[in-house]
Amino acid sequence: MSQRPYVIDVMISAKAIAARIEELCEEIQTEFGNTDKLVVVGLLRGSFVFIADLVRELDLPIEVDFLEASSYGDAMESSREVRILKDLRGAIEGRDVLVVEDIVDTGHTLNHVTHLLQSRNPARLKSIALLDKPSRREVDFRSDWIGFEIPDEFVVGYGIDYAQRNRNLPFIGKVRFTEDG
Ligand code: 5GP
Ligand code: MG
Ligand code: MG
């Protein structure tokens, strides 16, 4: 896919993200109480910045694991078929599990991943996504916690890429193409 020229407009500032993460962690701590068996599962690669900030704000004993599911590749089209490219290292049976995702878009990815993990009999399974695009949903899936609802815009930054670039931006930005393509 050739790259059309684009600029990135700030949609959610680093400060707003940090403030929201503080609120979310209060709720997560309340939900998981004094668990001593919480596994925080990051979906690679888009959630790596979010999970890093989230776990440092969580005042709970946790373990961290990662799972990679197929998603966009280098294009902007979503794929309906979800494949597991990299599975968890650890077993989650009897554990409390929090799945951390960057964006819920059509819902296929988190829907598939949470069903898969549920089949391994965790004690409790919850999910959190930084961003939610409810207008794009194709399957009936709702994350337990959402950072921000956003409109149907293609976003980058804070771990989220466009063709593998822009993951290192500290804010969520929206891609705006500057020429007709
Ligand atoms: P879903 O399976 O819910 O359609 O898609 C979830 C995945 O699609 C996200 O984890 C993310 O990787 C990708 N995605 C959805 N919206 C966007 C977006 O605006 N920008 C980027 N870079 N990826 C997106
Ligand atoms: Mg993703
Ligand atoms: Mg991607």
From TrEMBL:
The keyword Metal-binding applies. Its cofactor is Mg(2+). Gene3D superfamilies: 3.40.50.2020. It holds the Pfam family Pribosyltran. It is an enzyme of class 2 (transferase). Residues 15-162 form the Phosphoribosyltransferase domain. Pathway: Purine metabolism; IMP biosynthesis via salvage pathway; IMP from hypoxanthine: step 1/1. Its main location: cytoplasm. It is found in: Cytoplasm. Keywords: Cytoplasm, Glycosyltransferase, Magnesium, Metal-binding, Nucleotide-binding, Purine salvage, Transferase. It catalyses: GMP + diphosphate = guanine + 5-phospho-alpha-D-ribose 1-diphosphate; IMP + diphosphate = hypoxanthine + 5-phospho-alpha-D-ribose 1-diphosphate. Its EC number is 2.4.2.8. It comes from the Bacteria. One of its GO terms (molecular function) is glycosyltransferase activity. PANTHER family: HYPOXANTHINE PHOSPHORIBOSYLTRANSFERASE, HYPOXANTHINE-GUANINE PHOSPHORIBOSYLTRANSFERASE. Belongs to the purine/pyrimidine phosphoribosyltransferase family. This is Hypoxanthine phosphoribosyltransferase.
